[in-house]
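Protocol step 4 of 5: obtain the predicted structure for the target chain.
Materials: sequence only (see below). No template structures provided, no constraints applied. The aim of this step is simply to have a reference model before the mutagenesis design in step 5. Sequence pasted as it appears in the construct record:
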Amino acid sequence: MNSENIDQQIRIKAFAWLDEQVAIHGDVLSRDLLANGFYFESERIPLVSPQGIFKPKWMDYPLSITTTTRGPYNDSFTADSFLQYRYRGTDPSHRDNVGLRRCFENQIPLVYFHGIIPSKYLVVWPVYIIDDDPNSLTFKIAVDEQQSLFSAQNRVDDSSYYRRSYITSTVKARLHQRGFRERVLRAYRNQCALCRLKHLELLDAAHILADKESEGHPTVDNGLALCKLHHAAFDSFIIGITPDYKIEIRTDVLKEQDGPMLKHGLIELHGHGIILPSDKKEWPKQDYLDIRYQRFKKAG
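Step 4 output (structure tokens):
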């Protein structure tokens, strides 16, 4: 590796590799995948390390930053909707902090990983350091469009400030959505609670009570791991689940006669119990199920 532009070449390859992985797996990636990384000129380039600020030895600037906090997502955002990232330690002159400061000075694009559940991260890029505050030991981070990469657009001005603020604010919603999904699927051991289907790409985390409702919290006890067929049927009140965890199929559907999907995918579930999480604290809350079940009965 002797090119004078090696840092930028690796950075571009990293972004292209992430595009491929997100297309395959979605925007929540495993730590093992990120630690294995990709190859550049026969050298393996990981994207994460045990330290939150990571610079591969072949690069001039850090490549990625990682947040592993399990606290409220709001703790990661500033009042003006930007992300905040804490220094490594309390020494502003630590080499990792100096590395991010150099990214700030030169507007180098980075990758941001936010821990959703242990060993799984929401991936966001490109992000830029837009402020450095030694008093609070934090950097301020903005997410931007991919068109900004290595262009004059990544300089902060009035128009870019509002664009970046809006784009970054959407990350908070993604954190809640992806966090809910990952926690629910993990509780149900990555299988549909009705049919045991285990293909992650065909599984959803369904709300019992919608998040727009006052009790529609993004907690595991308000969720069910459902395959896409059963999620759609649950949302359409074709499937109901009683407060004692029994599956009911709407009466008119039970009377239908059609192909094998109707028979095996729906009708044969009638009267069976759902699969429940191992931890009883994560079981669907019976009050939530009762509210939903009453709506199912009215729909039938």
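Step 4 remarks: The longest strand covers residues 120-133. The longest helix spans residues 158-187.
Proceed to step 5.
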